[in-house]
Specification:
Elements lengths: L1 E5 L3 H12 L3 E5 L7 H7 L2 E3 L1 H7 L2 E4 L6 H8 L8 E4 L24 H8 L4 E4 L20 E4 L4 H13 L3 E4 L6 H4 L2 H12 L13
Parallel strand pairs: 1-2, 1-4, 2-3, 4-5, 5-6, 7-8
Helix pairs in contact: 3-4
Length: 213
Amino acid sequence: MKIGVLGSGDVGKALARGFKKHGYDIRIGTGHKEKLQEFSSSENIKTGSFSEVSKFADIVVLALKGNVAKDVLNLAEEKHFKNKIIIDVTNPISEEPPKNGVLKFFTSLDNSLMEQLQNSFPKAKFVKAFNSIGNAFMVNPDFNGQKPSMFICGNNEDAKKEVRKIVELFGFEAEDMGKAESARAIEPLSMLWCIPGLLKNKWSHAFKLLKKK
């Protein structure tokens, strides 16, 4: 399966390495190819424009700042991801500084970023995932033998099944939280995840959903 990662930051690079590790045919899309020359050479991962990589991919991974997500998808051209899964890793983090360790969002709790993107690109199949953990722990993290939870949501059940496979391959227990509206709850988990880091410089943690049998 061909995976196209849109985003050349640390998150995009981490996920691209992970897909390559697990045998996927991977390319990474960027608006600044010169920034990825060393990465592309050292990791043996091809790069391209957002449009080229979206056309190439069977599954698109949106791994960049939330405030540019819609613009990048426009550059990628909707015709290239029509009926394709888009794994949405974005968070709607504002440019405003955090307050007491709490990030600011440019969305409300009644309208998540993923809902906005799904409404803007209705022919794509958005699934939220990988937004509530740091890039250092996105691929087969070791938490003393415990698998962390990864919360996902989206409107298309078949798309979520495919993303569940990827999430589990990457070392997580996938927790399906339902339709796109659930991104209103999942996106703010990034706020919670970042508080220990921003206040105490502690970044080595993950979420776990405990279940009573």
